[in-house]
Amino acid sequence: MRTHSSTDARRRQTGRRHPLASIALIAIGLLSTGGAYALLTTTASAETTTASQDSISQGQKIFAANCATCHGMTASGTKDGPSLYGVGAASVDFQMGTGRMPLAYSGPQGVQRALQFTQTQIDDVAAYVASLAPGPGIPDQKYLNGDANVALGGELFRINCAMCHNVAGAGGALTEGKFAPSLKGVEARHVYEAMVTGPQNMPVFNDTNLTPQDKADIISFLKFQDQHASPGGVDLGSLGPVSEGLFIWIFGLGAIVGVTIWITARPN
Amino acid sequence: MTTAQDTTTTKATRSAPERGSRFTSGLANYLDERTSISGITKELGRKIFPDHWSFMLGEVALYSFIAILLSGTFLTFFFEPTMTQIHYDGSYVPLKGIEMSAAYASTLDISFDIRGGLLMRQVHHWAALLFVAAIGLHMLRVFFNGSFRKPRELNWIIGFVLFILAMGEGFTGYSLPDDLLSGNGLRIIDGMVKGIPLAGTWISYLLFGGEFPGSVIVPRLYSLHILLLPAILVAALGLHLLLMVINKHTQYAGPGRTNDNVVGVPIMPNFAAKAGGFFFVVFGVIVLISSFFTINPIWNYGPYDPSPISAGTQPDWYIGFADGALRLVPPGLEFVLWGHTWSFNILIPLIVIGIFIVAVMLYPFIEAWITGDKREHHITERPRNAPTRTAIGAAGVTFYAVLWAAAASDILATHFHLTIEAVTHSLQALLILGPIIAYLVTKRVCLALQKKDREIALHGYESGRMVRLPGGQYVEVHKELSDYERWRLVDYLNYKPLMIRPDAQGRIAPMQRVRAVLSRWFFEDRISPATRAELESGDNHH
Amino acid sequence: MAQHDGDPANAAGSELDKVSPREVPTGTAVVTSGAFENPGMPPHSPRVTDLDPKKDKTAERRVGGFFLLSIAASVFAIVAYIIFPIVPGNLSSVRVNNMLLGVGISVALLAIGLGAIYWAKNLMKDGEWMEHRHPTRGSEETRAAAAEVFALGNEESGFGRRTLIRRSLIGALVVSPLPAVVMFRDLAPAADPVALLEKTLWAKDVRLMRDPTNTPIKASDVTLGSVFHVIPENLADSADRLEEKAKAAVILMRLKPEDLHVSPERIDWNYQGIVAYSKICTHVGCPVALAEQHTHHLLCPCHQSQFDISHEAKVIFGPAKRPLPQLPITVDSQGYLVARSGFHEPVGPSFWERS
Questions:
Q1: What is the pTM of this model?
Q2: A35-90, pLDDT tens digit by residue?
Q3: What is the pLDDT of residues C256-283, one digit of tens each?
Q4: What angle separates helix B57-76 from helix B272-292, to the nearest 10 degrees?
Q5: Record: contact B418-A177, CB cut-off 8 A
Q6: Which chains touch B (3 or more CB pairs under 8 A)?
Q7: Is B51 in contact with A264 (CB distance < 8 Å)?
Q8: Interchain contact C335–A (C-beta under 8 A)
Q9: What number of CA atoms fall less than 13 Å from residue A135's CA on the CB side?
Q10: Which residue among A66, A234, B417, C178 is buried most deeply as judged by most CB within 10 Å?
């Protein structure tokens, strides 16, 4: 954290941004998350699934070829990427499974892109990383079905998530170019993993803050939103009054001005 | 309408032709004998209304207001304006069992349990957005046409009051469902009110009936929203239309159009059919939008709770400029002076917006004072023919637009992959520079267009056809304008800067000096309309 | 003031001013000599429907068609209302009801409108009518008569003459609305708002509870990088829950102790790097809840003020001036987080009496 803070402060002072700074930023972020887990794993249980030795060694190969440049051959981290000790399978599955890792480019934060690996490969890498040190595992399917309490999930979502992700999960802006992504269509597993691991600048919601059941409620709420189109019609991105205002000016008033021109145009 | 007139008109009605429906003439007779409506019909029925698309923008506002009244009345049958906390037991699953106010619950019921309720809610809200937008566009039309000049200055003020009332109606209505978005909007209002020196704390306390949020703000806003504000609005609207009838509508310069006549179509039947039809079109467009596009999905926002907030919390578009002003205020502007807190981070936006609004309201009087022209003006000016006014208008529009954009600074940041900080800083700079640039560019463009008009009026259009003269010289043939076409280009007013002259005592009043400075600013750069004399003297060259 | 400096009324070709018995100042308007003359109305060109009876008939049928379509659409809307009802709990039934009812109504309205306009444009008598304007100002006789009415009114009532009556009446009219002003006092309860604004439910040993589940928080629950949204333990029993929550909402985060820059007087306000800050923005009061794990920035989504939690929530960007007030915390004997005291300053937006 120390290094991270000073990097950050220096960047603000000089106003210049080293191309690798953001990677470092994220990397160090991941490091500290992992570190936090290693140090303070209390009730956030490490549900590491027992993986076969085959899978682990396969994962190690993939890791060495694709991840080691930044995270180091032994995943202990380099100046370009954090140590992955203790980040757990959940973190690997989220970062690689949503296409955030390997990084597409350096920016204020890692962005999603097309998946670079198959799920089996991701599972192998996750198994390898999980074998290094205990960390949060892949969530249990029973929390991901979307059949929990939608109303409570909605309330928890509004209090804990909506300020960044927007009440409808449409996403929103954070400081210095970072943003909370849209949650539309995100897989339940990845939502759960994001909550337990706190990727990038998202806070961690450990199991004492939001119990696995709470997380299941939130996931159920998000699934409900995904599955039900807005009863009022097209939702205009769920961005609220800004998109509504633009819409009425451009399309509403635009259409009506078109009509006024037709009304007053002389027929031939 | 005197009784004498009454009897004569009655006779006229009785001797109406036998052809046509007996019922209609009977009804007309019945009404006239009790209302002397024939006088009004005779007076107004064939009144001429000029035909131009931009003259219909005010109608859009009027018709959306009618749509608002109709849909709003429907909503009042179901809406419960109280903040009693209840547990929701309606049909929307994601809110089942959640504690909320009766106002919010009844809005959910309107949306999910009453057929057509959601449609009426959406009609009401879309029409409200359209209402204020149409007023705004109508005001811009009136401003850039100079249609606010004598004798219409008072109607400009009334229209301006309508604009403010419309925003007040909008904001009070926006707050009624007591959802998370509007609740946070009210919280911002509370914070702003508290920032007012001396009385702020007490105003907020009285407004909310105690501490924010209290349990009375929704019923209080409801009274304002459905009773007081609409009553004033309808009265002002009536006055606005009455004055329009008295002053008659303005018209564009054109052949046969003078300052003393109105050229157009009669109200009966042509204009009535068009305007009446247009009402149905506007209403139809609003309903069409409401059937396909969600507005204000309060079920997403959840009930108001002081702890949560949503990313992208914004007011409806017409309050955006005020919210933007709050966002753009420079950092650190709050001080403790003389034992009291001075929140300039709230006061400066309030003052700046206040000055802007008052300047808009008083502009007709300022311009009238500068020109000193006391004549009636019924010919609307093309914006280019009043370059300084148009440039001022463009600067004002830019200023407003920057504040408006600032209200969406976070959405601009995420959607254009910028940082919030960069967006805010750019908009802060633009708020100062934008209007200046807009002013200079617009004025130059107007003068250039005027020059072009002059060229065309004197030399005709460039036809694109090259001709070789006997001497070997090439010239482009210009197509001469007809007198009718030319008249549109040359019929405009031209003012010169004021020369100050000492009064009888040989003194020059300070206000006269100010007026002279302003007059020079307004009219120093001007292009006179082309004249026949110029056309005739320049006949032989191209 | 304008009267003397304008050019004498040449009236720039305006009939209005010529008929007017007085000279209307034209201000600084320039009268162009040798200007073009208004060429008068251009010749009228007929429409196809005026020339071709067949086209006229087609247009008539179209208008009728529009109106018939409107009837059909209205019937459709009624049918849709009945056969596509809302099934409680089924959101898509709401969507379908909204859409079909709306389409029916809007087509019915649009068809009436378009039909009427089409009728006016293509079939009603075409041409340009002209009407004269009259000066808005009343004629001299009318004005004189109006002035006479006022003079008579004044004369007959003695309004101008009887100064006692006039002045006392004006006084009475000015004073009469004052009771209404006084009556606004009871819009709010008798208590003094300032005292209310200065206190919250937080006090010594009040437990920090999770919002909304209202469960206490152990210090060990708050792992590094966590953010908890907190309400006071006694909120549930409070009579004014929303009002108290609006002041008492708190955000709880754990930072590494070396990341925290703590001023000497606040040395015991955090518990092992766990800090609690008021969530209510010091600008205009939105909940500042957007917490970034690694930068320790809190962002307000309303007006983008940013607070740095590692530096006692000082403002680093945006319109807010004051840092978020910090809630001093510690743990009780059972290891649950409790307030060490209430806030040391009023929370939320500034107000006049604040200091």
A1: 0.90
A2: 444 444 444 444 445 567 888 888 888 888 888 888 888 888 888 888 888 888 89
A3: 888 899 999 999 999 999 999 999 999 9
A4: 50
A5: yes
A6: A, C
A7: yes
A8: no
A9: 32
A10: A66
